[in-house]
């Protein structure tokens, strides 16, 4: 899966959404690429999002029209590229006159409908919550509201899909591999990498891309011996999942008393996902977790709207991530821009370095395209930009019609239980056929490790998708961890240990 040599055009550091996006774009434009990630793909910020591909309705309040337009345009591009990973979702926003006037809401939604190209999603509308299905779970005082559209995404699988495409086009992807140091020459970087098992590898690269998210300034100082010119403002965002609070398929956007927005999203059939917080964070981004105060804040935010009340004791699962925000003049953390900045250091007589500051999941593809375009100066002419029209692996679904694809999958494999077929289709799209190759009945899936996880899927994930641990499989390659029993986790650990030969960290996987 990629070049095993030691000299590359590009060394991309960081296996989050921006790193894999840049690697994918660059290899498709003719560059040789090595990507290294110190942990698993999407192990941190990129798997700790609110699971939305969205324009960012609330950013309009801070006059971030350019960012919202860019994000709305990208929403359409990504929904076409990965219809299995991104699904349309309608959001209900109850109107609270003491927080924002109705005219402001209508104006904001009008702009949201028209700032970017919108062909796949329906427009916004006003609703009467006394008669609308989404009004039933709400307190009686909430009578009027609005409905608008965005997309729900499997964030960690979006990262994996980009890595798969990069590797399939020739990039080398090394997980559990850390950039220890890099010495800058006039034309090349000489870098030292270390795997989790302690193995060292020396590589050369014409350019380094530092796409390490909240670690970007630390990598500059510690590994590259460069003092950063740009500073980040780290914000911790936490989410909770509770047993499902409503039966319909709408999500909610709730205005909170502090002017922030909190989402309540139907999630994994049995749960409601609630988030997010926005808290200044100054500790290790790899050791982030929710506090009691944050859990109480999120519960109070939805309790102000729902009839059914929740407490922190109802929380089934929580997760936190650190968002690397561009430092600006805003005092309120919620007002800090979610846009990005690309800093190219390519002076004469020194190998180029590109650092990525900020960004959000929805705009990763545009960021990646702009990043690689910047490298045409120091690296020479490249092939044209290409990702705006290219499906991601598994996303080449005819017409982007997921439900029709699911029906066709069921007809090809009538023995496959419907819930399992839907889960496979959502996770793997058209690559489900690769997973099911050679199967003609449930027995061909191998032993059921537990809770709907069969050997064939575990084998696929360890062979093709860089999965090494139970956490990789249950929480990032899937969200089966929400349903998995302790026995399933134990059996999966045993299965992985028995199949560890050839699964050493940093290994080269089978070609996708």
Can you put this structure into words, describing what you see?
The chain is an alpha+beta fold and 512 residues long. It has 3 domains: 7-45 and 157-231 and 338-389, FAD/NAD(P)-binding domain (3-Layer(bba) Sandwich); 87-153 and 234-324, D-Amino Acid Oxidase, Chain A, domain 2, CATH 3.30.9; 398-498, Alpha-glycerophosphate oxidase, cap domain (Helicase, Ruva Protein, domain 3, Orthogonal Bundle). It is 29% helix and 24% strand. It has 14 helices and 20 strands. Strand 8 (177-184) and strand 9 form a beta hairpin. Helix 1 (17-28) runs parallel beside helix 4 (155-168), helix 1 (17-28) crosses helix 7 and helix 9 (402-412) packs across helix 10 (418-428). Residues 501-508 have low confidence and may be disordered.
Please provide a brief summary of the model.
With 512 residues, the chain is an alpha+beta fold.
Assign the CATH architecture of the largest domain.
Answer: 3-Layer(bba) Sandwich
- Tally of individual domains: 3
- Count of DSSP helices? 14
* CATH-defined fold name of the largest domain: FAD/NAD(P)-binding domain
Question: For the record, what is the CATH homologous superfamily label of the largest domain?
Answer: FAD/NAD(P)-binding domain
Q: In percent, how much strand structure appears in the residues?
A: 15-25%
What is this structure's SSE topology?
Blueprint: E1 7-13, H1 17-28, E2 33-36, E3 52-53, H2 65-81, E4 86-94, H3 102-114, E5 125-128, E6 144-153, H4 155-168, E7 172-174, E8 177-184, E9 189-195, E10 200-210, H5 216-222, E11 232-243, E12 251-255, E13 261-267, E14 271-275, E15 279-280, H6 292-303, E16 317-326, E17 340-345, E18 353-358, H7 364-374, H8 376-379, H9 402-412, H10 418-428, H11 432-435, E19 448-450, E20 453-454, H12 455-464, H13 470-476, H14 486-498
Parallel strand pairs: 1-2, 1-10, 2-7, 4-12, 10-18
Antiparallel strand pairs: 3-6, 4-6, 5-6, 8-9, 9-10, 11-14, 11-15, 11-16, 12-13, 13-14, 17-18, 19-20
Helix pairs in contact: 1-4, 1-7, 9-10
């Amino acid at each position: 899966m990629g070049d095993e040599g030691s000299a590359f055009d590009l060394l991309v550091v960081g296996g989050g959404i921006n790193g894999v996006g840049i690697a994918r774009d660059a290899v498709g434009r003719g560059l040789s690429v090595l990507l290294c990630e110190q942990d698993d793909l999407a192990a941190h910020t990129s798997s700790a999002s609110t699971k939305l591909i969205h324009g960012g309705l609330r950013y309009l309040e801070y006059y971030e029209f350019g960012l919202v337009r860019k994000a709305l345009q990208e929403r359409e591009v990504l929904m076409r590229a990965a219809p299995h990973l991104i699904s349309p979702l309608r959001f209900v926003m109850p109107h609270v006159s003491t927080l924002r006037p109705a005219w402001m809401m209508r104006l904001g939604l009008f702009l949201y409908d028209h700032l970017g190209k919108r062909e796949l999603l329906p427009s916004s509308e006003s609703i009467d919550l006394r008669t609308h299905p989404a009004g039933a779970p709400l307190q009686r005082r909430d009578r009027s509201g609005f409905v608008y559209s965005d997309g729900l995404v499997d964030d960690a699988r979006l990262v994996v899909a980009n890595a798969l495409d990069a590797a399939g086009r020739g990039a080398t992807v090394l997980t559990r591999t850390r950039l220890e140091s890099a010495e800058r020459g006039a034309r090349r970087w000489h870098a030292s990498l270390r795997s989790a098992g302690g193995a060292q590898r020396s590589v050369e690269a014409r350019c380094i891309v530092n796409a390490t998210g909240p670690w970007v300034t630390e990598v500059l100082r510690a590994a590259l011996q460069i003092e950063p010119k740009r500073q980040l403002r780290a914000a911790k965002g936490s989410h909770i999942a509770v047993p499902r609070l409503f039966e319909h398929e709408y999500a909610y956007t709730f205005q909170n008393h502090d002017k922030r927005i909190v989402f309540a999203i139907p999630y994994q059939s049995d749960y409601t996902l609630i988030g997010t917080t926005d808290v200044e964070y100054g500790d290790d981004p790899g050791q982030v977790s929710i506090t009691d105060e944050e859990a109480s804040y999120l519960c109070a935010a939805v309790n102000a709207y729902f009839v059914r009340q929740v407490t922190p004791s109802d929380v089934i699962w929580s997760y936190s991530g650190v968002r690397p925000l561009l430092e600006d003049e805003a005092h309120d953390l919620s007002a800090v821009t979610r846009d990005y900045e690309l800093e190219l250091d390519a002076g004469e007589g020194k190998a180029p370095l590109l650092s990525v500051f900020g960004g959000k999941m929805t705009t990763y593809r545009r960021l990646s395209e702009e990043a690689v375009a910047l490298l045409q100066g120091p690296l020479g002419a490249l092939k044209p930009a290409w990702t705006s029209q290219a499906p991601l692996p598994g996303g080449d679904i005819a017409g982007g019609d997921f439900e029709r694809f699911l029906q066709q999958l069921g007809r090809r494999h009538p023995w496959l239980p419907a819930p399992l077929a839907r889960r496979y289709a959502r996770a793997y799209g058209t690559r489900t056929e690769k997973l099911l190759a050679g199967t003609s009945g449930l027995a061909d899936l191998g032993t059921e490790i537990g809770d709907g996880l069969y050997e064939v899927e575990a084998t696929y994930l360890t062979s093709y998708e860089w999965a090494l641990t139970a956490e990789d499989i249950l929480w990032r390659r899937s969200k089966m961890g929400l349903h998995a029993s302790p026995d399933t986790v134990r059996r999966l650990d045993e299965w992985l240990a028995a199949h560890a030969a050839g699964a050493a960290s940093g290994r080269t996987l089978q070609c996708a």
